[in-house]
Design goal:
The complex is a heterodimer of chains A (101) and B (265). Chain A is of the alpha+beta class and 101 residues long. Chain A is built from four helices and four strands. Chain A has one domain. Chain B is α/β, with parallel strands linked by helices. Helix content of chain B is 38%, strand content 18%. Chain B is built from eleven helices and ten strands. In chain B, the strands form two sheets. Chain B has an eight-stranded mixed beta sheet with strand order 3-4-2-5-1-6-7-8, with helices on both faces. In chain B, strands 9-10 form a two-stranded antiparallel ribbon. The two termini of chain B are 34 Å apart. The chains are: A alpha+beta (101), B alpha/beta (265). At the A-B interface, helix 2 of A face helix 7 and helix 9 of B. The complex binds adenosine-5'-triphosphate (ATP) and magnesium ion (MG). The site of adenosine-5'-triphosphate (ATP) has 19 residues of chain B, from helix 1, strand 7 and helix 10.
Chain lengths: 101, 265
């Protein structure tokens, strides 16, 4: 209680200033500006990524989220792919690939 | 060619390019350097009035380029700082009236005679931008601590890279320490973190910029102006001096600007 009160007075940490929002938004938009990838290409990337992951694990494709992040002018592709379950074993997945191929 | 050719650019309009060119140029000249300021904002001439030289224009950049006068004739010498010269923009033409190759030739010719050739770039990223950067070997990017200006500055970093101008230096203009303190304005760290280029100076938002512009006397000539002091420090850093960053005083408290990039180390 006391600590919270103190930190509210001293730090103003409780209130998120508008600049934090500005920074967050800027970082996101700049990462996308920097890759300059079209929405169509981004969608293809998402689908390819989903099918690649689906070879190894069961995923929730609708819950997927991909974005670009940048720091120090270098870019990273950040993907979060919800996994529902794993494929039974490497054995079965090999069998499957064998069937389709 | 031995002088430095430096373009001052921003992408977004109205962030302080012309103000920076006038002040940094004037400060460099006051340090004894021979400086030519080139107004590359064709059709929107402004550097002349900011410098208080608007009544002395006879010829302009396009006259010189088209051979209608000699380059020397188009250069206006400042009466206060004798080593400062202005090559004014043409007011009647538009940005498409000149070609990048012509601009390159002109800046090359100036660089033979001057220590610094500083180009005031128009806003935008079209032909006018291309013309202003083509002859430059270094760049100063001006931004304000606002999302749109920072975003455009980032774009400019990429475009300069494509033109072969690497490692541009950053000037953050119109910083308001009171707003930074409240957490309502991007601070210096934030902007550097986002743009990831070297900082060369921070200029506070300061009324004396407007009053000095009203008079046609760059703020660096006013010893009491905080913005003027910031611009003088930028000039010193451009000259290779290791100058500590200004600590800015906001109403009611001290706010210390952190030191970056080894300044003052
Ligand atoms: N540090 C500052 N403090 C207060 N006012 C400033 C500061 N810097 C610039 N200004 C004001 O902001 C306005 C725009 O500045 P300036 O003309 O230098 O911008 P610019 O980038 O050259 O604009 P444009 O893109 O139109 O060429 C001017 O009125 C100027 O006086
Ligand atoms: Mg201007």
């Amino acid at each position: 209680m006391v600590f919270e009160f103190m930190s509210r007075i001293l730090g103003r940490k409780n209130r998120l200033g508008s600049k934090d929002l500005a920074k967050e938004r800027l970082k996101l938009v700049l990462a996308h500006d920097r890759v300059s990838i079209s929405p169509q290409m981004l969608e293809r990337l998402r689908r390819d990524l989903a099918s690649a992951c689906a070879k190894y694990v069961d995923i929730d494709e609708a819950g997927m989220n991909i974005r670009f992040d940048s720091s120090d002018r270098s870019l990273a592709l950040i993907a979060s792919v919800p996994v529902i379950g794993s494929k039974q074993s490497t054995h079965t997945s090999k069998k499957r690939r064998g069937k389709s191929g | 060619m031995n002088g430095k050719v430096m373009v001052v650019t921003s992408g977004k309009g109205g962030v302080g390019k012309t103000t920076a060119v006038a002040n940094i140029g004037c400060a460099l000249a006051a340090r004894g350097k021979k400086v030519a300021l080139v107004d590359a904002d064709i059709g929107l001439r402004n550097l002349d009035i900011v410098l208080g030289l608007e009544n002395r224009i006879v010829f302009d950049l396009i006259h010189a380029m088209e051979g209608r006068c000699r380059l020397r004739q188009a250069l206006i010498r400042d009466k206060r700082v004798q080593t400062l010269f202005l090559l004014p923009a043409a007011q009647s033409k538009d940005k498409d009236a000149i070609m990048p190759e012509q601009m390159k030739e002109l800046t090359g010719e100036l660089a033979d005679e001057f220590d610094y050739v500083i180009l005031d770039c128009p806003a935008g990223i079209e032909r006018g931008f291309k013309n202003a950067v083509v002859g430059a070997d270094s760049a100063l990017i001006i931004t304000t601590p606002e999302v749109s200006a920072v975003r455009d500055a980032d774009r400019i970093v990429g475009l300069l890279e494509a033109e072969g101008i690497l490692e541009p230096k950053l000037v953050i203009n119109r910083l308001r320490p009171d707003m930074v303190k409240r957490g309502d304005m991007l601070d210096i760290d934030d902007v550097i973190d986002i743009l990831a280029i070297d900082l060369v100076g921070v200029v506070p938002d300061d009324e004396t910029v407007i009053t000095s512009t009203n008079r046609g006397e760059p703020a660096v000539l006013d010893g009491a102006s905080r913005a003027g002091e910031a611009f003088r420090r930028i000039a010193a850093r451009i000259e290779g001096e290791d100058v500590p960053f200004l600590s800015m005083e906001a109403p009611g408290f001290w706010w210390r600007v952190k030191r970056f990039l080894g300044a003052g180390r």
